[in-house]
């Protein structure tokens, strides 16, 4: 079953068109790994999928409430403890028990620690644990393993694998090999648009 279908999508960042003609589909139980050199537009595509930036053209067919996005900016509440952050998200997204998320990223020793006072890798673990708490089936992840040590990269890969086994999907921009057996790869280089400023009144019409 297809959970996310992208058809002829054009994506912008600020005033610039970054991608055009992006077309792919992701099924339940499938991960799609986005590849492409620095600046190609992986973050731009993920932001568009997450609804943070409107598409310039094309279609995104998915339940908008199905997508959970995790980006470079971790989105943690710095003054709240790890447990309070997870409980906060549990209340926002429904009443998911945060215990599996805590276990998946080995957050038990850190539950009382304020999020703002953790290391970069610890913050990342909390940010990834948030995905489990959302209960959302389509994960859109931007460089999720940045700052993680090898043990926590393995925990992350295990969490994604479990998510896929439960019928979830994932679109992941990453430069490393996560070793996910179900993953397919999409190189976005062919979709890189000739840079067009969308606020230029003389620019070629986009859509
Ligand atoms: N606010 C902005 N306004 C205009 N252009 C931007 C803006 N932010 C990023 N860009 C440009 O958009 C292009 C795509 O950037 P994006 O962050 O999507 O690439 P990426 O594939 O995720 O790169 P990386 O592998 O380095 O994370 C880049 O050329 C970048 O310079």
Automatic annotation (TrEMBL):
The UniProt record lists the keyword Nucleotide-binding: yes
Listed GO MF terms: ATP binding; ATP hydrolysis activity; transmembrane transporter activity
SUPFAM superfamilies recorded: P-loop containing nucleoside triphosphate hydrolases (SSF52540)
A Gene Ontology biological process term: cytochrome complex assembly
Residue ranges of every copy of the ABC transporter domain listed in the record: 4-205
Keywords per UniProt: ATP-binding, Cytochrome c-type biogenesis, Membrane, Nucleotide-binding, Translocase, Transport
Membrane keyword on record: yes
Pfam family name, one: ABC_tran
Highest taxon of source: Bacteria
Protein name: Cytochrome c biogenesis ATP-binding export protein CcmA
Organism from which the protein derives: Roseicyclus marinus
Lineage of the organism: Bacteria, Pseudomonadati, Pseudomonadota, Alphaproteobacteria, Rhodobacterales
Gene name of this polypeptide: ccmA
